[in-house]
Amino acid sequence: MRHWHTLEDELIFVVEGEVVLRTEGGEQVLTAGMCAGFPAGKQDGHQLVNRSSAPARYLEISNRDPNDAAEYPEVDLAYRKNEEGKHAFFRKDGTAY
Question: I want to staple 88 with a disulfide (CB 3.0 to 4.6 A). Which of 9, 26, 30, 82 is the partner?
Answer without folding.
Answer: 82
